[in-house]
Amino acid sequence: MVTSEPFIMAEASHQIAGAPRVTGKPALARITGYLRLRRTRAILACFLVASMGLVAFSTVDIQISRLFFDHGFYLAGQGWVKLLHHSVRGFIVVSMVAAVGIYAVNRLWARNLFQVDGRKIAYLFLVLILGAGLIVNVALKDNFGRARPRDIAEFGGSEQFTPAFVIADACDHNCSFASGDSAGAFFALAFVLAAGRKRAASMTGVGFGVLVSASRIASGAHFFSDAVVSFFVMLIVADFLHYCMFQPEAEPLEPAPAPEPGILIGAAGKSLP
Asked: What residue ranges of the chain have pLDDT lower than 70?
């Protein structure tokens, strides 16, 4: 029995050695696949250790904030602190407008500038909305009720200090835990991942987030732990969504079809009964 050549060519092109086949996987399979990654375990382990340390040694928050306090948070009125604070909103607006603009150019004129496509635009919006929006600014800031450093008794205020992850009633809305400005600045991590984890971009993104976080701590607006939690939230959300949207799932290659019964191919290429 002779197999037709078109069929052989189709199978060969479909089963190139080492080429993964992208398949649609259920959400649960994506989550378990992400949790099996070594980097995922490292990130989650660091987050867990950092969180436990911030709760066990909660006075670190007060000690760090006290470095910037002398009858008031004396750096709160500094120009560089205000500039970094207001730069977060500008960064988000300018970066997203630029990304959408580049995508429009690529679509209208069939270009591939910076390899920006619709999937990357959707990825950036999802990281921003889920990470900085829903998790940090809604789930955390509006529900944990943590007073800001400038409002607690240790720094001349009237509210009681509460450690990170402890629900309090010192604040009703837009509270200290976690830092929305830090989350907005660490949104730069999504651009880093979308660009392919380049070292220079990584250092710039993390550096911007650290500077913004430092300015918010120095001004008495946030504790150190607020910024740390925002960093890990944005890192995990950005990394997980990048895995789900850009990492293909390899489907095991199907074995080649067995010859029909009664047909053997001899060494000389002759059919044997």
From this structure: 1-25, 249-273
Q: Is 81 left (phi over 0), alpha (psi -120 to 50) or beta?
A: alpha
d(CA 111, CA 102): 9
With 0.90 as the threshold, say if the pTM is over it: no
Q: Which helix (H) or strand (E) holds 272?
A: strand 271-272
N-terminal to C-terminal alpha carbon distance within the chain: 11
Where in the chain are the domains? 34-246
Distance between CA 258 and CA 251 in Å, rounded? Answer: 20
Residue 196's pLDDT is what? 85
Rounded to 5 degrees, φ, ψ at 158 are -120, -5
193 backbone dihedrals φ, ψ, rounded to 5°: -70, -40
> What's the chain's Rg over C-alpha atoms?
27
Q: What is the C-alpha to C-alpha distance for residues 93 and 40, in angstroms, rounded to an integer? A: 30
DSSP conformation letters of 205-246: HHHHHHHHHHHHHHTTS--HHHHHHHHHHHHHHHHHHHHHHH
Dump strand ranges (E) for 115-269: 264-265
Q: How many other C-beta atoms can be found within 10 angstroms of the C-beta atom of residue 186?
A: 32
Q: What is the CATH number of domain 34-246?
A: 1.20.144
Q: How many residues does the chain have?
A: 273
SS3 call for 125: helix
Q: How far is residue 79's CA from residue 74's CA, in Å, rounded to a whole number? A: 12
Q: How far is CA 27 from CA 33, 118, 159, 193, in A?
A: 10, 21, 43, 21
